[in-house]
UniProtKB/TrEMBL annotation:
Organism of origin: Pseudomonas syringae pv. coriandricola
Chain residue ranges for the region called Disordered: 91-172
Superkingdom to which the source organism belongs: Bacteria
Polar residues: bias regions: 148-169
Taxonomic lineage from the root: Bacteria, Pseudomonadati, Pseudomonadota, Gammaproteobacteria, Pseudomonadales
Protein's UniProt name: ATPase
Amino acid sequence: MRTKRRITRAYCIELKTDVTIAGARRAYFSLPEPRQRFKFLCSTPECRELPIKPKVTAANYHVHPSEDSAVYAPHFKDNGKYEHHPDCEWVTDDDDLTPRAGESELDTKTRLARRQLKSMIDIFDPNPEPDEPMPRVDQQGEGGTAQGGSRQSSPSNQSGTRKNSPSSSKDLRRLVDAYTEAKETLPSEVFRNLKITVKGQGQISLRSYFLPAMYAKCNTAGRVYWGRAELLPRFGESIVFKLTKGIGDKMTLIKVSAATFKAYKSKGYINDLLLHAPGIKWFTVYFFGVFEHDPEKNIVNGVVTDLRRLAIDLGPKKANASVE
């Protein structure tokens, strides 16, 4: 059988576990160079027990998130050469093409457009989850085969509990990918009508959940603040971004301490991303946290206590930047 739903997870042979596309990107850039791309199978255990295991194609996870229009959203997609098990979680169609009872024309357009987005999620839980696993040096190791056939998923990950479930994530990077793809590809009226459910807040429009940092209020949480920023010179492993447009008339910084950086498992991913600073005009940063005013220095600080609450996109290249 062929898949019909948007594939949001896949089994990575090298990592020996299910990963999201955002997790695959972090793991990939945490590898030392020269890097080799991962291989993926369907996340459903029943599919991996088939004589011919269905492979899943992973696109664009090997490039950093960027404002460059040539860089498309990372995503998994069905490989048309393979058949899936009838109980595969991705086989069932989650929406019909006809208007539903009581549904407006705009709501129908929004629902159908939502299906076409590669990165869209239905539910966002802002509480960080445990880090996804990093690659191992060994290619097989104990407890699984190189083809993923004997590795068993935990009961909570069985396909029966996930089939027909809304797409849910705690990953800010994945939410940002969903937001940027929707903003860039959907008609404005459809984008404004697109909603997600945020745990603790209920249903909210995706557009309003992202607020330009310049409009943020100090000591106020509950939104993803974003803005263009300059990376200031690094001292040790700390990171400081200076927002191009601060809050009010005050300099606004987003800070990551050396201790916070060291606690993050995907340090290689962040370091590789920041190495692009000399060749780009700016970074775009997405911060889920609280800004606080420092009266002594009369500046505003956004302190990142967990790097999973910060997402970073590359800005456009400088005119004289070399092409790698």
